[in-house]
Amino acid sequence: MPCKKPDAKLIPDLGILTSNDPVAIDQATQDLTRAAYGQTLGHLAFPQRNACIQIEHAAQIGMGSMEYELIEVTD
């Protein structure tokens, strides 16, 4: 069976994010994408859906926080 060809990238690489907080990572990804491209990654991938609903719900049930501090690390 042939391998499926990968889909085209929605956006160029914005870097690597890391955290112990999955909600903060998702929120930071949305914020960085919006700042760079005017739309969130969720909206670019699924324009008919509201990606914030899942992030907000995860924060409400205690999976993490939507607040974060972005620390840029360079070599």
What can you see in these coordinates?
The chain is mostly helical and 75 residues long. It is 40% helix and 0% strand. It is built from three helices and no strands. The radius of gyration is 14 Å and the shape is globular. The model has no long low-confidence stretch (mean pLDDT 88).
Summarize the structure.
This protein is mainly α. The chain contains 3 helices and no strands.
Distance between the termini: 43 Å
The dominant shape is globular
Radius of gyration: 14 Å
SSE order in H/E notation?
HHH
Helicity range: 40-55%
Q: Give average pLDDT, whole number.
A: 88
Most strands sheet: none
Q: What structural category characterises the helix and strand content? A: mainly alpha
